[in-house]
Write a structure and sequence with these properties.
The complex is a heterodimer of chains A (369) and B (497).
Chain A (H helix, E strand, L loop, with lengths): L4 H26 L1 H4 L5 E6 L16 E4 L29 E6 H12 L13 E11 L9 H15 L18 E10 L3 E8 L6 H21 L3 E8 L3 E4 L1 H6 L8 H15 L6 E8 L6 H18 L2 E7 L7 H10 L6 E6 L5 H9 L4
Parallel strand pairs in A: 6-7, 6-9, 9-10, 10-11
Antiparallel strand pairs in A: 1-3, 4-5, 7-8
Chain B lengths: L9 H16 L7 E6 L1 H9 L10 H15 L7 E4 L4 E6 L4 H20 L10 H19 L1 H13 L39 H4 L2 H18 L10 H8 L4 H22 L1 H19 L7 H11 L9 H18 L4 H4 L4 H6 L7 H11 L2 H8 L2 H6 L2 E7 L4 E6 L2 H12 L6 E9 L4 E7 L7 H15 L3 E7 L2 E7 L4 E5 L1
Parallel strand pairs in B: 1-3, 7-8
Antiparallel strand pairs in B: 2-3, 4-5, 6-7, 8-9, 9-10
The chains are: A alpha/beta (369), B alpha+beta (497).
């Protein structure tokens, strides 16, 4: 970009970034962002970064308009006039919507929560290279000359310089007209990390609890995807039995009935054995529940599964206990009792309400595993 | 000039030259106008910089660029053209426009350029502003090198917060004469006597009169001690002269002030200027240098877009061009003067036609002397107001909506004029630079039925304090009670006065 817009734009983005950082805790707990998530970026509404003036309070001021209608009729809120602009136009009063890439958002999250970077234990930088002829250049070997583009360019020049004669439509391309195909190198990232989300969907997990899980996982996901070239995600829901579902179902399902946590752990183990060889994959296990388990026997079974299979295979096993009115919260205590604080491969967090999400993220990700 | 290839195509060059000749032949008079052909991205960039290719570095241009780009991407608005008031004028055309658009826009641009050159309210602007803006940029870049980007940028933020505190009439006032009642050393002169022969002196200049004059002089001298002598509407100038700023800070505030004065006439003449340009592009496209018949539909489509009215907002293009045509019709038919104004018979008024043909002459006069306020004050009449279906809308608290509140001519006109007063900005003056005899700064807001926006007022006071460095106050009305809002560097205070 000529002129100096590039640097002014960067300056502006830096300010925006500061604002986002300041408001991050609110964003994390409100869920506004998830609704605005595109493929790789989110749109964040920010209050317009305004320079204050002594100005009229305009909100209830009213004004003069033109058009049909009786006294008392509602008028549409005036939109800015699409039309010719002129130097020195007044500034609009709209709130500011800023596009932020998930990558950038994760960086901000990392800075704000002081998250350490993760050490990748799998193969380093597994990437495939691919070449694709997609671009057009003004220089290149004759063998790659793009005939159609060259012709078009020559035609355009002939017409605009007035030498084109429809009676004798001969077009002779000169050097400047010539266009060549060019290729680009693509790095195809190869997934080397897997997240297995597990959630208790028994009756005691209400909508608010699930929303908390959804928000927490969104941010876990966002952070982890900046740490790995590619991320595989799997979702398991369980009550007395466990099954694998897609992301949509994961957040929507509500069942009733009892809870056997071991069913989920067993399914996760099966997934690891089938798809994610621990020597090549960085494996993350996140389990959310309200802490009720059907029986002490099953809890003992869970500990055994964790201790001898899941934890050795994974980078991190994280358990988030989402408080609900009905849950006893026993499972967290059981885990604490069994593992103590010794293991650095298991992290436990109690997520009382939305405000606690930030702290849970810090707990889960703070170890850099 | 930007490193782009911005040359017009030969075809457009030809069109621009022909339209320029036609416009001159029709009576328009403008500076040389340089057109540049740019794509929407470049146009957004230029627009973000207020039309100028070089401005001082600041984040808000980036913000404006982002806003314009987004607005374009979502299809909310397109800038078709952009003109800078400079000698020569610079105008930017959007490359993507079709030929009919380009012709129309070029004609429109000549209208603006004629207006810039001939309208009284632009007569004091710097016509080399393009260079001056570039000089400002150089200066600010130098400060950034010397002092650091964060400090300079944040001081610019502070200055921009005060940028509207100018006196739009200042360029038209004659510089104040040095006081005449003191001699060259500042000592008071003896009271002026009327010249008289010595033997007549005691009659012509009686002792009581001389004594009276002397006392007046003393009072005057005491009054001068109030500071500023008279309320000062050029608050920025007052700050530059009296606030404890470092020299680079003074220069920065000076730059912001210069640029504010440059843009003020544009805000003051928005309706008339756009109306004038629209009037001329329409006249040229249909009469003076008419379009080919195959182009007419596209042209009409474009014109309808320009003058489209949206309920709840006033389109300056539409209001301006319609009022100009109203004036032209009236002066062509002689619908003015005592007889016409006193004629109460609507039928007779409508049929009034003395075939004077004075319309064009009148229009040229209007473009020469008026700004939006005087233009509407003088020519917005009841007939026009009804024909163009004007109304006032107000906020209705119960329904939380804006509703049409009146179609009464007087109310409409009053509201319109009130909104345009002081280019839409509140009128604020420095009344005391030594308030409470403690070097505090007191401003006064001339309240015109609308309160100041409260949160921004508090923030602006903070910025004012950053410049004045002593407590600052503003007197205004809040919900019909006179109040003084103060900021002492750490706290705000609001008192009833």
């Amino acid at each position: 970009m000529p002129m100096h817009m590039e640097s002014d734009l960067n300056r502006f983005r830096k300010i925006v970034r500061g604002k986002i950082k300041k408001e991050l805790r609110r964003f994390i707990s409100s869920g506004d962002l998830i609704g605005r998530q595109g493929k790789k970026r989110v749109t964040i509404p920010l209050p317009r970064i305004d320079i204050p003036h002594f100005q009229y309070g305009s909100n209830e001021q009213g004004g003069v308009g033109q058009g049909q209608g009786e006294v008392g009729d509602q008028v549409g809120q005036g939109e800015p006039q699409p039309g010719e602009g002129q130097a020195g136009d007044g500034e609009g009063q709209h709130s500011l919507e800023v596009d932020v890439t998930l990558q950038e958002l994760a960086e901000i999250l990392g800075e704000e929560l002081a998250l350490p970077n993760i050490e990748n234990k799998g193969k380093k930088n597994i990437e495939d290279r691919q070449y694709k002829y997609t671009g057009i250049l003004k220089q290149g070997p004759e063998s790659l000359r793009h005939f159609k583009r060259t012709y078009k360019q020559a035609l355009r020049r002939a017409i605009s310089s007035g030498t084109y004669d429809p009676e004798n439509p001969v077009i002779v391309p000169i050097k400047e007209d010539k266009r060549y195909r060019s290729y680009r190198v693509y790095n195809l990232p190869v997934a080397n990390a897997a997240i297995i989300y597990m959630m208790d969907v028994s009756g005691s997990m209400g909508d608010e609890q699930k929303e908390i899980v959804r928000l927490t996982s969104f941010w876990l996901d966002t952070w982890l995807s900046t740490q790995y070239a590619g991320l595989e995600r799997r979702y398991i829901i369980h009550d007395a039995t466990a099954r694998e579902v897609d992301q949509q179902t994961f957040y929507r399902t509500k069942e009733s009935g009892g809870t056997l946590i071991s069913s989920a752990y067993r399914l996760a183990l099966k997934m690891i054995e089938e798809s994610f060889d621990p020597s090549e994959w960085n494996i993350y296990l996140f389990h959310f529940s309200d802490g009720d388990n059907w029986s002490g026997n099953d809890t003992a079974e869970c500990m055994k599964l964790l201790e001898s299979h899941l934890i050795p295979a994974a980078n991190l096993f994280a358990y988030g206990q989402v408080e609900s009115r009905y849950g006893s919260g026993q499972f967290l205590r059981d885990l604490q009792k069994h593992f103590g604080d010794a293991s650095n491969k298991i992290t436990l967090a109690q997520i009382k309400d939305r405000d606690a999400i930030v702290d849970a993220l810090k707990t889960f990700l703070g170890k850099g595993k | 000039m930007h490193g782009y290839n911005t040359q017009l195509t030969p075809e457009l060059q030809d069109i621009a030259a022909k339209l320029a000749d036609a416009a001159r032949a029709a009576g328009l008079d403008f500076f040389d106008t340089i057109f540049e052909l740019v794509d929407y991205k470049q146009l957004n960039e230029i627009a973000a910089y207020g039309g100028f290719p070089t401005r001082y570095p600041h984040w808000r241009w980036g913000m404006e660029y982002e806003r314009l780009s987004k607005s374009y991407t979502y299809g909310l608005s397109i800038i078709y053209e952009m003109v800078i008031n400079n000698d020569p004028c610079y105008a930017y055309l959007l490359r993507a426009n079709d030929l009919v658009y380009q012709k129309t826009v070029i004609a429109h641009v000549y209208g603006h350029c004629d207006f810039f050159k001939n309208n009284y309210w632009f007569s004091k602007t710097n016509r080399k502003m393009l260079n001056q803006m570039a000089n400002h940029a150089v200066m600010i870049r130098k400060f950034i090198d010397d002092i650091g980007q964060d400090d300079v940028e944040s001081f610019i933020d502070t200055c921009l917060s005060l940028e509207n505190l100018i006196d739009i009439h200042a360029p038209f006032k004659s510089p104040q004469k040095p006081r005449s009642d003191t001699d060259e050393y500042g000592r008071p002169k003896p009271p002026a006597k009327i010249k008289a022969k010595p033997y007549m002196d005691t009659y012509i200049n009686p002792a009581e009169f001389l004594e009276h004059q002397r006392r007046k002089q003393v009072e005057e001298a005491q009054r001068v001690k109030s500071f500023p002598e008279n309320p000062e509407r050029d608050v920025l100038k007052f700050l530059i002269d009296h606030a404890p700023m470092t020299s680079w800070e003074k220069r920065v505030l000076g730059i912001i002030r210069d640029e504010s004065y440059y843009f003020a006439p544009q805000a003051q003449t928005k309706i008339l200027n756009e109306g004038w340009a629209t009037y001329w592009h329409s006249k040229m496209m249909t009469q003076i240098a008419p379009l080919h018949e195959s182009e007419i539909i596209d042209y009409c489509d474009h014109f309808a877009g320009v003058v489209a009215s949206h309920p709840g907002s006033l389109n300056p293009y539409k209001l301006g061009v319609e009022l100009l045509r109203h004036i032209e019709r009236r002066w062509d038919r002689g619908q003015f003067g005592i007889d016409y104004l006193h004629c109460d018979d609507p039928k007779k008024r409508a049929e009034w036609n003395k075939n004077l043909g004075l319309g064009k002459q009148k229009l040229l006069e209007v473009r020469r002397i008026h700004n939006d306020i005087t233009f509407l004050d003088e020519f917005l009449d009841e007939d026009f107001c009804h024909e163009s279906k004007m109304f006032i809308y107000d906020y209705d608290r119960r329904s939380n909506k804006y509703v049409i509140s009146s179609r009464d001519f007087r109310e409409i006109k009053q509201k319109l004029l009130q909104q345009l007063t002081n280019f839409g900005q509140p009128i604020i003056k420095v009344v005391d630079g030594n308030f409470r005899n403690r070097g505090e700064l007191l401003l006064q807001h001339s309240h015109e039925s609308v309160d100041l926006k409260h949160d921004t007022t508090l923030e602006t006071l903070k910025n004012l304090h950053r410049v004045w460095k002593r407590p600052v106050h503003i007197e205004t009305m809040i919900e019909e009670v006179k109040r003084r809002i103060s900021y002492d560097g750490s706290n705000h205070q609001i008192e009833k006065i």
